[in-house]
């Protein structure tokens, strides 16, 4: 009987930032199936990944013993996960930890800032905190980052600049209290499916749903307004919406006067963006722009949701600045049904960022260049003076490897050999490293380049807290037993720190959580015991009884004077524009069934059966022009490289575009992508590369 189980354990889905609570049904130390339970974000719902994406943890490819590279074994994508012994040999934990620590320590001793770390947005808050602490305390600098750099770094940069906080101002469930919602540069039906169910219900109840995206994805069916604009034209489009609000006097002057600054500059700037003058650039009829502007500005309460279609551009920070300005000028922050909500990608990208796993901020976004902040953390940590210089970001670290500055890395649960832009450059950097320590659950593409691999427990095999897109801190509980000698990440990082002479003594994540609270005011009134008891508490929580505030900034903003700021955004074209050689536009993203680089979901039976291989989507007219039948193969070429991939016909994709998911190593999207970065958030332009498409 497939429904036969011994025990049920409550945890949190390990995939997206929605943070659905789950009940793991266990038998003989293994997960038999998963059910949704009544968490604050999911209210009992799960998507296909949450329901069926669990059996990867019992896959025969799981790493069960530490591995050390054989002398002289070549580094590269050539190791069979089922038979790693052509390149690696098994080692005891003692030998592997000693090798890992001594290699990093030697490089550090030789020449200062030569070691860098990538932590993980798929680990717990406690593990993210320990990882950044290890790099800062152990190596004395801030060269530590994680995949937020590839996802919402530009959103956080704009939010910190203009609102004073990088987190959402309202939970997505607040859509119940909204009259209008904008969803821009996001495809929640595929990427935040449970959140999308609330959006659909909102539309069915008569809420005005404004969907803005270069792709006409499935949420279009529920939209009151579909604004399918030209790729890269986000800033002129958003400025034109705001210019209508100014021209027609639809802004909320009382709110602007009370809570904002720099309005006059914004107003003047917008005068040059009348929608009638921008139709060619945005591809959108001025009448539709005016209707959208009026609909949003005249509603009682409006929410703005955005995803990586907004953030992954060289003008990603400007895109978010526009969205913040739109919310501020209409008074749509700090009240029920209103607010700013960048939909977070990974299950714990919010928590990992909050915990300081970023090169410019310590926990709770405290400025690493501030002497007082640094000494407060040195005091909490008991030792370990570290630099006040901002560290290198994900893509900068790879550049520094090529330049010879970074010579060793510790990578925990990240897969830059698949996820970095221009991945050929990243793979060459990984191969060049003199000492690479990889800690993961599978022999990932990145682990192929490691000198030593440390086998880790999967999320359902460990205990710790995670923070979802709604600022809800939730308790994840260990259910299944880790295979072989795999260990929880916090325990591995703790032992590595001990071997580096840092004297850490943690014996349980609750001790780490207690230490984090000392440096993180956002956790005030949230304790480990409360989370064990209540499962989830939203920050900020105003008292030990308060379940947390779904809406913030009702009384002003955490900036000087309590005022948010308008920062005008000018039009910056994409880094590459299509030309005769590369005439089309490549955009990359995810599919419902697969998660990021595919290491987990492609090893989940049901999900792999539904989406078994690499694919791209093209408009039927484009396929006809190329002479390719749906299901046939096409060649995609950019200035970085080329791949061959099966083509699907999809009317949602514009005729001059190709959409390519990045989960498939056999046709790795990031061989093609442009590494040009946003100057503020340092996020790459994954959403726009010039590409040539031909029949393969
Ligand atoms: Fe998991 Fe996200 Fe799906 Fe919820 S919506 S079940 S958190 S992948």
From TrEMBL:
<keyword id="KW-0560">Oxidoreductase</keyword>
<protein>
    <submittedName>
        <fullName>Formate dehydrogenase subunit alpha</fullName>
    </submittedName>
</protein>
<keyword id="KW-0004">4Fe-4S</keyword>
<keyword id="KW-0677">Repeat</keyword>
<keyword id="KW-0001">2Fe-2S</keyword>
<keyword id="KW-0411">Iron-sulfur</keyword>
<comment type="similarity">
    <text>Belongs to the complex I 75 kDa subunit family.</text>
</comment>
<comment type="similarity">
    <text>In the C-terminal section; belongs to the prokaryotic molybdopterin-containing oxidoreductase family.</text>
</comment>
<feature type="domain" description="4Fe-4S Mo/W bis-MGD-type">
    <location>
        <begin position="6"/>
        <end position="61"/>
    </location>
</feature>
<keyword id="KW-0479">Metal-binding</keyword>
<keyword id="KW-0408">Iron</keyword>
């Amino acid at each position: 009987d497939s429904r036969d189980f011994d025990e049920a354990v409550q945890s949190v889905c390990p995939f997206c930032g929605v943070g659905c609570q789950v009940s793991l049904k266990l038998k003989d130390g293994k997960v038999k199936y998963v059910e949704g339970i009544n968490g604050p974000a999911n209210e009992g719902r799960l998507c296909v990944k949450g329901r069926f994406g669990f059996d990867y943890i019992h896959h025969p490819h799981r790493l069960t013993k530490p591995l050390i590279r054989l002398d002289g074994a070549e580094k590269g994508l050539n190791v069979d996960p089922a038979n790693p012994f052509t390149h690696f040999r098994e080692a005891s934990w003692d030998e592997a930890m000693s090798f890992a620590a001594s290699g990093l320590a030697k490089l550090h001793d030789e020449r200062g800032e030569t070691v860098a770390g990538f932590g993980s947005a798929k680990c717990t808050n406690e593990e993210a905190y320990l990882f950044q602490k290890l790099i800062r305390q152990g190596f004395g600098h801030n060269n530590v980052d994680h995949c937020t750099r590839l996802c919402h770094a530009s959103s956080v940069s704009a939010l910190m600049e203009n609102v004073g906080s990088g987190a959402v101002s309202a939970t997505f469930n607040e859509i119940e209290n909204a009259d209008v919602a904008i969803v821009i540069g996001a495809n929640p039906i595929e990427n935040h499916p449970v959140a999308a169910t609330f959006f659909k219900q909102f539309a069915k109840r008569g809420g005005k749903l404004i969907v803005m995206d270069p792709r006409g994805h499935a949420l279009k069916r529920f939209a009151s307004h579909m604004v399918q604009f030209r790729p890269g034209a986000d800033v002129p489009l958003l400025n034109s919406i705001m210019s209508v609000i100014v021209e027609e006097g639809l802004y909320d002057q009382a709110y602007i006067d009370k809570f904002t600054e720099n309005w006059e500059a914004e107003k003047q700037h917008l005068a040059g963006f009348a929608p009638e003058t921008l139709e060619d650039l945005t591809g959108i009829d001025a009448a539709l722009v005016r209707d959208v502007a009026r609909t949003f500005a005249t509603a009682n309460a409006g929410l703005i949701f955005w995803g990586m279609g907004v953030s992954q551009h060289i003008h990603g920070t400007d895109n978010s600045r526009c969205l913040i300005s739109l919310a501020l000028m209409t008074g749509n922050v700090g009240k029920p049904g209103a607010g700013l909500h960048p939909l977070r990608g990974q299950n714990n990208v919010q928590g990992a960022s909050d915990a300081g796993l970023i090169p410019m901020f310590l926990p709770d976004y405290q400025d690493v260049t501030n002497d007082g902040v640094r000494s407060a953390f040195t005091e909490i940590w008991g030792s370990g003076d570290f630099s006040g210089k901002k560290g290198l970001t994900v893509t900068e670290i790879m550049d520094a490897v090529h330049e010879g500055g970074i010579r060793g890395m510790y990578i925990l649960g990240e897969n830059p050999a698949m996820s970095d832009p221009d991945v050929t450059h990243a793979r060459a950097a990984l191969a060049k490293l003199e000492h690479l320590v990889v800690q993961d659950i599978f022999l990932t593409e990145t682990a192929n380049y490691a000198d030593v691999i440390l086998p880790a427990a999967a999320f359902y095999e460990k205990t710790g807290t995670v923070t979802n897109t709604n600022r809800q801190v939730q308790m994840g509980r260990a259910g299944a037993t880790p295979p072989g000698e795999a260990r929880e990440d916090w325990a591995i990082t703790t032992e590595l720190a001990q071997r580096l002479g840092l004297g850490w003594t943690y014996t349980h994540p609750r001790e780490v959580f207690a230490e984090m609270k000392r440096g993180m005011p956002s956790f005030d009134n949230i304790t480990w015991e409360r989370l064990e008891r209540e499962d989830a508490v939203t920050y900020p929580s105003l008292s030990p009884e308060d379940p947390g505030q779904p809406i913030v900034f009702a009384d002003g903003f955490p900036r000087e004077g309590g005022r948010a700021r308008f920062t005008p955004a000018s039009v910056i074209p994409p880094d590459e524009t299509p030309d005769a050689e590369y005439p089309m536009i490549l955009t990359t993203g995810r599919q419902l069934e697969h998660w990021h680089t595919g290491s987990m979901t492609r090893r989940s039976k049901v999900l792999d059966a539904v989406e078994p291989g690499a694919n791209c989507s093209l408009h039927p007219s484009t396929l006809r022009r190329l002479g390719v039948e749906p299901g046939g193969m096409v060649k995609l070429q950019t200035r970085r490289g080329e791949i061959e991939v099966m083509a699907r016909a999809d009317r949602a994709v514009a005729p001059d575009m190709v959409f390519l998911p990045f989960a498939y190593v056999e046709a790795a999207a990031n061989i093609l992508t442009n590494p040009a970065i946003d100057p503020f958030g340092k996020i790459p332009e994954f959403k726009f590369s010039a590409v040539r498409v031909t029949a393969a």
